[in-house]
Amino acid sequence: xxxxxxxxxxxRAAGHRLIDWIGDYFERIDDYPVLPHVQPGDVExxxxxxxxxxxxxxxxxxxxxxxKIIPGVTHWNHPSFFAYFxxxxxxxxxxxxxxxxxxxxxGMVWKTSPSVTELETVTLRWLRDALGLPxxxxxxxxxxxxxxxxxxxxxxxxxxxxxxxxxxLSGLPPLKIYCSEHAHSSIEKAAIALGLGxxxxxxxxxxxxxxxxxxxxxxxxxxxxxxxxxPIAVAATxxxxxxxxxxxxxxxxxxxxxxxxxxxxxASYAGPAGIVPELRWIWEGIxxxxxxTLNPHKWLFTPVDCSVLYxxxxxxxxxxxxxxxxxxxxxxTDTAEINYMDFGLQLGRRFRxxxxxxxxxxxxxxxxxxxIRDHVAMAARLAEEIGKRDDLELLAPQMLSLxxxxxxxxxxxxxxxxxxxxxxxxxxxxxxxxxxxxxIRVAIGNGATEWRHVARILDLA
Amino acid sequence: xxxxxxxxxxxRAAGHRLIDWIGDYFERIDDYPVLPHVQPGDVExxxxxxxxxxxxxxxxxxxxxxxKIIPGVTHWNHPSFFAYFxxxxxxxxxxxxxxxxxxxxxGMVWKTSPSVTELETVTLRWLRDALGLPxxxxxxxxxxxxxxxxxxxxxxxxxxxxxxxxxxLSGLPPLKIYCSEHAHSSIEKAAIALGLGxxxxxxxxxxxxxxxxxxxxxxxxxxxxxxxxxPIAVAATxxxxxxxxxxxxxxxxxxxxxxxxxxxxxASYAGPAGIVPELRWIWEGIxxxxxxTLNPHKWLFTPVDCSVLYxxxxxxxxxxxxxxxxxxxxxxTDTAEINYMDFGLQLGRRFRxxxxxxxxxxxxxxxxxxxIRDHVAMAARLAEEIGKRDDLELLAPQMLSLxxxxxxxxxxxxxxxxxxxxxxxxxxxxxxxxxxxxxIRVAIGNGATEWRHVARILDLA
Lengths: 461, 461
Description:
2 copies of one chain form a homodimer. The first copy, chain A, is an alpha/beta fold. Chain A has helices at about 10-30, 60-70, 90-105, 115-130, 145-160, 165, 185-195, 215-225, 250-260, 295-300, 315-320, 355-390, 410-425, 450-460; strands at about 140, 175-180, 200-205, 230-235, 260-265, 290-295, 305-310, 390-395, 400-405, 430-435, 435-445. In chain A, helix 3 runs antiparallel to helix 12 and helix 5 packs across helix 11 (about 315-320).
């Protein structure tokens, strides 16, 4: 008899209990405080110094889970979680993850589980079409947008024709990537990782609506070229973290093409809005993009992690990472059409397409559209109500499901309101600073959020 | 009412069905063919060109899952899966993933869910002690060993004192990383990613037991220094992919220290064996390591993905990636002790510690030890039986749970045996090439594997 799991009896009993626990959790999520009342170390000290020698039954572990772990949880599933980008774990997504964990597949190459590779291809084609993206895009799922932007910029580095993959950067002039001052920190991290350094990520100032200024981008490229540097890519953002602003792709795209730069578009947050036909204006100029990343785990009801990278140039992505010599233990796969491991840094690839398939198919595109429309409508209503108030004002135009506002009285009053809001435990907002002014940042993105949750912000601000 | 998931009724019903489906799957896994009988495109063409507009009930999706997806699955959970490194998804691990998906937390910083950060700290301390590793190691969980080796080598690059994080590699002499010719391909991929190029990953020849030769390492370092290059790291392997060989850390460690090189140890596969006291010889010389990666998702019964990185120099890891200026929306966390996002490339971090906690606590260390002991014992018995055969011989010493053998007749006969074994669908082995000779590679690592599964290899070879 196998020693690890001799029977499935305990598993079945505990599994049913956990399904019901999660069902109850979804139903009662409103009753939890969004933010836990713990100090650093509080959770840690509830645990023994070592795990047990002889094991504990699942019931005991579920009790410990409730008593020791849950009190230290910030509830991302809470309908009043408005910080960062609010995300939402759907029920279909949970079931997809459950099946994926049960199978425990690794789709590093086609042969290691054809269904992992092919369902990824199928769902990403569905998603691409549902989002209204160009039909010449190749897609791959990775864990995070940080990785996807990094991979895209690695492809850009390789596409510069300097044989960096073989020879490295030594002896080359400095390479430059351009992004807006509002680009996500992952662009800077990618520049560090790729050996370009923080100095290799050139920040371009934004206009009065926090969009990258194409004229300043053009000047920066010219200045760097004159100084002997080699521009390789522009990383534009569709939906910046601070304000949701959208860089002007119709201007940046042709500029990047003229300058022969790779155009990467970080649409991690805003991209999923493309499934709503009347929101597809976010894609204006997207036909110029060499690569696009967007996160189903942000605004498409998919449990973390699931981030998608699309590119019209999979060859460059592949040549940036494909091994010089594939080791024999990986060469079983001559007949494969796609071996996704060749398109990234990670060899191991869990079956993330399964939850995406479950979500797209169980809810159907229309229901997903309805929820995203609701989020945007609630954000618009919040912005409108703020406009009516004597003491509040928008600090940036409302964009999609994101609203940034402040107390008219200034930073001190705004900080007080921010702290008051989060201190209630009822809701969780984040903050940002724009042109030196502090703002309260409200991101709506949870599948259970209703107007009454959002309205509390107006009560408490 | 929330539009996405108005009730939990369907979820509960489907969840119970899926738990039982997985229970049945574990019980009947022996009846599935390990390798599917599909050609590229077979799975893909079973799906429609677009997802549905109005959604399908879970029952219909479970049927599609069984009819369209399962027939294209390579069953990593199968007890006769002996290819790559056999892995195993335990029942406790599945339950941990289920809970993690239900909560859908993102532990990017402490505040975004204190329990995610602190349970990671707790379980990695437990694991470190259970493995018999030095107690001065700081741990972090990431998705894969590819990422962890990449991060460790990024820390090495930063620790070289050339301010690469800020200025990049331009203008610097070539940097060099050293590894054995049997190192995993992820080391070469890391060198590419980091901007060192394939040329930056110097392969050192191995001895008659496939271990990196320290004398040749020393010569290579001296040669590169003389040529003006800057050696920065040695990536040693404890448990190579091809043969399970262990590089001689007692020689390499002091050499790396003398040369002021970062010593990274890739123990992805073999590391978990350290929980068995009598196998801790694998760690001889480990006190010299600056960083170590090992995979609970390989040989510690954890569903993919869960790879651990330990380092005695977290400051270097942090300084390799911590942002120049932390954006305001991430600065809520002044009181935090550890913000794991500072120690890696990825900002998003799902709650992987939960499944590790569940596994360590439910099975207890003794049961886990028992299973790993069995795997090693079965490998030893397989090697012994091969030794008794006239037609077979070992191509490398049996190491831990890994056996590489061949037909004495040569490559052609070996390839025929290899193809015969996999063609049955009963089991799945991989192959490798050592000093030009083809070998059949048998990795034992599944929680349900018994001797009768292994014995079939002898019948069919």
